[in-house]
Amino acid sequence: MRDDYDPRLSIRGEGGAVILVPGMNGTGDLFYRQVPRLERSYRVATYSLRDDAENFDVLAADLARVVDIVAPAERRAIVVGESFGGAVALTFALAHPERIAALVILNSFPHFTPQFQLRLAIAGLAVLPWGAMSFVRRLTAFRLHSRHTHRAEVKQFVALTADATRDGYINRLKLLTRYDVRDRLHEIQLPTLFLASELDHLVPSVSQARYMADRVPSSVMRILQGHGHICLIAPDLDLERILHEWQDGSTV
């Protein structure tokens, strides 16, 4: 990692390595509900994305270094990418398949469409008074969160994303305008689980997961019933249980 990049890496638990790759907000803090469960079975790591990546290859290289730190002997990990983090994880899987024990992609995509939404979001964020961003997050909570997510969890989400920067958001949105791995999905030969929230109003996660699962040979897909795009802070979603069910062959 570059000397001026602080990944805010956190490692907890013992066992096989699991690395959680954050979404558009760029902070690993949003995995707070899942880490205590995962650390019962895994050596689980969270980290934050840099705000100034020139391309997805830079973010993939950062992830490779995280793997080296978390699993110095095996140099392999289960990689879980959420939303934007799914794009990072897919890029990493294509560049460094030998560094992944298994791949989990949550509410993500091989290419973001429609592209005009990205350009509108970039323009909007450029002029939005940044202090109003927490209000925007609260205002849109009913469309983003799972229906069982408590109000206190939404408040926690707003607090944990308060440090996200305008530059980081815009940088990641710009990266998505150049991101497209649709023609390379068949190259991913890793055990892969695609998770898609049934009530995702931000990304058409179910159709995107189905598209990817049809093209990644060793993959399965699971729909998360009753969940929205931001689902990992919901009280009734347990990523550790989902991983165990997948590894046991009981995922449907």
What would you note in describing this structure?
The chain is built from 10 helices and 7 strands. The model has no long low-confidence stretch (mean pLDDT 94). With 252 residues, it is α/β, with parallel strands linked by helices. The protein has one domain (10-247): Rossmann fold (3-Layer(aba) Sandwich), CATH 3.40.50.1820. Helices cover 37% and strands 15% of the residues.
In short:
The chain has 252 residues and is of the alpha/beta class. The protein has helices spanning 35-38, 56-70, 84-95, 115-127, 133-139, 141-144, 151-160, 166-176, 205-213, 239-247; strands spanning 10-12, 16-21, 42-46, 77-82, 100-106, 192-197, 219-224.
Helix percent reads: 25-40%
The overall average pLDDT, rounded, is 94
Range of strand content:
15-25%
Distance between the termini: 38 Å
CATH class, named Alpha Beta
Treating each run of at least 4 consecutive H or I residues as one helix, how many helices?
10
**Widest sheet: strand ordering:** 1-3-2-4-5-6-7
Largest sheet: 7 strands, mixed
CATH fold label = Rossmann fold
Give start-end ranges of low-pLDDT stretches: none
* Class from secondary-structure proportions: alpha/beta
| Structural domain count | 1
State the main characteristics.
Rossmann fold, 252 residues, 7-stranded mixed β-sheet, alpha/beta
Q: What's the structural blueprint in terms of helices and strands?
A:
Elements: E1 10-12, E2 16-21, H1 35-38, E3 42-46, H2 56-70, E4 77-82, H3 84-95, E5 100-106, H4 115-127, H5 133-139, H6 141-144, H7 151-160, H8 166-176, E6 192-197, H9 205-213, E7 219-224, H10 239-247
Parallel strand pairs: 2-3, 2-4, 4-5, 5-6, 6-7
Antiparallel strand pairs: 1-3
Helix pairs in contact: 2-3, 4-8
